[in-house]
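Structure tokens please, single chain.
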Amino acid sequence: EAQLVESGGGSVQAGGSLRLSCTASGFTFGELDDVGWYRQAPGKACEVVSVIVRSGNTYYTQSSVEGRFTLSRDDTKNTVSLQMDRLRPEDTAVYHCAHDRSLSSFCAKFTHWGQGIQVTVSS
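Here you go.
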């Protein structure tokens, strides 16, 4: 079964760091594909966090995480990672990994969508 497997979530105090990883199982990241992370906080709409395109350049980044979150991909390992530093309580959400030929700056029905991993930041 083709799926995205996420890891690395958890609870941390404000100002701390977490690293999320997402590995493809049952398929591989094509060199022309986009991969990225989205999140949904309780009572709020799903939003993009950051998307990296085939060239390795970050394509979309949520303005509130710029300078704090870094997205990277390793196609040899079929993995995309999100390093989150200087976390804030408002970063608390369920984070989803996504993969498609072309990801958008908004949440949509993508080819592959991870089940989600909880990130909780306490003040």
